[in-house]
Amino acid sequence: MFQSLEFPKEALIGKGWRSLPRRFPVVSPATGEAVVEVADCGSEEAAEALEEAVAAQRAWSQATAYERAGVLRRWHDLILAHEEPLARLMALEMGKPLKEARGEVRYAAGFVEWYAEEAKRVYGETLPSQFPHKRILVRYEPVGPVYGITPWNFPAAMVTRKVAPALAAGNSFVLKPAEESPLTALYLARLFLEAGGPPGVFQVLPTSDPEALSRPFLEDERVRKLTFTGSTPVGLKLYGEAAKTLKRVSLELGGGAPVLVFADADLERAVAETVRAKFRNVGQSCVAANLILVEEPVAEAFAEAYAERVKALKVGDPLLEETDIGPLVNRAALEKVEGHVQDALARGASLVAGGEAKGLYFAPTVLLDVRPGSRIFREETFGPVAPIATFQNEEEAVARANALPSGLAAYLFTRNLSRAFRVAEALDYGIVGVNDGVPSTPQAPFGGVRRSGLGREGGRWGLEEYLEVKYISLGL
Ligand code: SIN
After folding, report:
1. Are residues 221 and 369 in the same domain?
2. Alpha-carbon distance 169 to 120, whole Å?
3. What digits encode the pLDDT tens for the residues 290-343?
4. Could you confirm whether 252 is annotated as catalytic?
5. Residue 4 pLDDT exceeds 60
6. With 0-12 CB in 10 A as exposed, 13-18 as middle and 19+ as buried, what is 98?
7. Do 20 and 153 belong together in one domain?
């Protein structure tokens, strides 16, 4: 199947594709085999791309909003027209099951569509002055060249969620895709050029040495914005580096979401949505359910129905239509998942589904009676393991959720409207899904509080991250 799939393997720098003698392998987690070797960029290519980005920014920021919107609209259409190769590429390079990968292509295209429309709505403002001879004008201008670092778990949507608003606002963008999944990003860049995107406006530099590649962008005063999705430790480091040149930053960092299931919930729906919240992308999502807390009176019924559904999930080759659960991305991911399960079992939890590994595949797993001190309660598992524990009342549930270190997403299930508002407002999280296991969508603000980062992506908030405010005082 893949022998016939054409995809770019070179870096996109300045005016076009750059073939480099240095290469690194992209390894399929499903087979352990190298899919292809891609161009391995270093500091020399970074320095060149930086100059190109600065030059491209000038012209692109002066294009009309309608011209920018037109490019984004055509890019959107091309992404949708290439849903199948993009989905297959994702399945191949990072193991996302095909049917989910198709969904991600549509999700990714949704950001491009949204910002194609928003590009035309970057309105200025006029403010009343206290002086009759003065006028006060506020303009929104592009922030400046942007450097972006995207993760492997959503190789298409995390690219478009950053690139589309940055470009809509009139910025150039240099992307460093994850080492595990550069092919999807390069394919998106190819479609951007086909859509009439000017060379240099969007550049993609794959690398096996992220630190060396990032350094020139972090150190250069002319790069005015850093956007990153990834782990909290790396985000903290980048934040410190970006501070030295006072760059604007958006950091979408670790999650570890709690789910609160109240006794008054629609149990069937709570089970179905919590399965989605946990097992989407094999649990490898920042908003994945990490800890499921169920109110004592319904805990047994919930756990039984949950385990039944989890046992029905199909583990297998990500390229097969029926697969629900593909492999984990690499050995480190597998070892973390295994470590969490072993630790929980050693502390007294019981295993009601899954628990076994084969290659990089880890069977979808359900643990009951997980004890409070367990690692799985404190750390983000990023894998297909659902730990279930109980709570006695609303106050305890909210307190336990808010005691977790991250603040990206939380979920709650109830049919009581007052409780839905009360708990959603009390949860110290950037996103709250009420009776909804997958709240992510292009028009809404995605982002977290506390150790989950800074800034928002999606909707008008995502565009504001790439705009600078200018005030013009006009004396008549
Ligand atoms: C992420 O895991 O960072 C993104 C998940 C999403 O957009 O829903």
Report:
1. no
2. 9
3. 999 999 999 999 999 999 999 999 999 999 999 999 999 999 999 999 999 999
4. yes
5. no
6. buried
7. yes
Ligand 1, from 154, 160, 227: best to mutate by most atoms within 8 Å of Cβ?
154
Together in a domain, 249 and 262: no
What separation in Å is there between the alpha carbon of 56 and the centre of ligand 1? Answer: 29
Residue 8 sits in a domain of what CATH number?
Answer: 3.40.605.10
CA 115 remoteness from chain centre: 17
* Ligand 1 centroid from CA 64, angstroms: 31
Do 162 and 150 contact (CB within 8 A), yes or no?
yes
Kindly list the protein residues whose Cβ atom lies closer than 6 A to any atom of ligand 1.
153-154, 157, 229, 252, 285-287, 440, 446
Given the residues 45, 118, 179, 252, select the one marked as catalytic. 252
Residue 125 known to be catalytic: no
Annotated catalytic residue: which of 41, 286, 295, 394?
Answer: 286
Is 380 within 8 Å of 409 (Cβ atoms)? no
Beta bridge partners of 90: none
Which value, to the nearest 10 degrees, does the dihedral of the CA atoms of residues 11, 205, 111, 455 take?
Answer: -170
| Ligand 1: centre distance to CA 165 (Å) | 17
pTM higher than 0.90: yes
3 state SS of 211? helix
